[in-house]
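Quick one: structure tokens for this chain, please?
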Amino acid sequence: MNSDVLKEIKSPIQGELKSFEKHFRQSMKSSVPLLDKITYYIVQRKGKQMRPIFVFLSAKLWGEIGPRTYNAASFVELLHTATLVHDDVVDDAYQRRGFFSINALWKNKIAVLVGDYLLSKGLLMALEKEEYQLLQIISKAVKEMSEGELMQIEKARKLDIEEDIYFDIIRQKTASLIAASCSAGAASVTNDPDVIEKMRLFGETIGIAFQIKDDLFDYGESSIGKPRGIDIKEKKMTLPLIYALNQAQKSEKRKIIRAIKKNSTKKEVIRSVIDFVKEKNGLGYAEVKMNHYRDKALEILETFPETESKKSLYQLVNYVIERRR
């Protein structure tokens, strides 16, 4: 079901996405054999390419896709890949999308250097093509992503954050790159600042809904029928947990926070936190918030021209919150 929907979403830009794959592979090229081997591995295990899809659909909505759009999509994907490689090192993660991570296969030192290489390739590409606006849009997103991650790490120490801080974190950590994908796509075909800003806002709004959906996955059942609880293990404060803690008595709140601080990796603690969140309707509340951001994104979309790309973006908004992984 998911792959059929995604296929339909991609249909107006199917040819462009195919050409983009060659463009992206080329943008990763290196004369160092080890780097070439690793970048080939990265290309082979690429995910759904959500961000390039946002770039191409946003561009096609407002004009004719050309070399600038391919540059925008490659730059976004290079920087996104660089941040994923670095994230796996930071999180000590040995798998991503069912494949071994770069740090699992080649160790942390090489993974950090590969991330740096991808980042510099993106920056150089933008400079060589004199894409200064693109450089500004994407560099700002990477800055915000770093700030969001650091804020999350800082807040995880106390495990007691308010909802507005949570939204600040996800706006920077997750939504900023989706916002940049949409505004970069638009900027590749139009100079209208109002259109570019509207696309940025659209991307940011759907990016927030995207992250809340990820929060909800942590409380869903895995393929072996057990809740994932990965965010709980990593002491990440997600929206369902923040809401549940705000509904609890002070003593109960203290007890849950203490359990996460001291024993977040224990199965029984994860189970009790999940039960606590469900009992306090944390999941229901997070779903309401996610749907609020979806509706906000659709409202912005309503003001766009009627095209095949608009139809695909409409489907993409719904796909983001209905996806199963």
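Confidence is low (pLDDT under 50) at residues 222-226.
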